[in-house]
């Protein structure tokens, strides 16, 4: 831009400003402030939403870790494998089965044990105490449990 063009542009803007008068200048200033405030509020809302999503993901991760610890510390002791098939609906909607012995199947039938899908996708047999703790935290992990 040449010096002549710059002077011309400045003259034009000054002329427009004089034509609007003081009221027009105030109105323009108010509109600019309103747009700026609106943009600031929209950015704050986006930041809050991003923070909420991040916090939710962190809470979900902490919950999965806690469920994993409960599962590992409350596994049914002894041999559970056998010839009896126990079908259940997994969290993904599939219908797999576990092969259990009569003792483990009896525990499932009575509610003394439960089938839990751990956060890493493994299906395990846990005690009723562990199932209660998992139920208190988030019952979505319980695949099968006869509550007494």
Q: Briefly, what is this?
A:
This protein has helices at 3-73, 102-110, 128-137, and strands at residues 84-87, 97-100, 113-117, 123-127, 142-144. The protein is of the alpha+beta class and 148 residues long. It has a domain at 72-144.
Structural features, described:
By secondary structure, this protein is an alpha+beta fold. The chain has a domain at 72-144. It is 61% helix and 14% strand. It has helices spanning 3-73, 102-110, 128-137, and strands spanning 84-87, 97-100, 113-117, 123-127, 142-144. The strands form 2 sheets. It has a 3-stranded antiparallel beta sheet. A two-stranded antiparallel ribbon has the order 1-2. The longest helix has 71 residues, at 3-73. The chain is rod-shaped, with a radius of gyration of 33 Å.
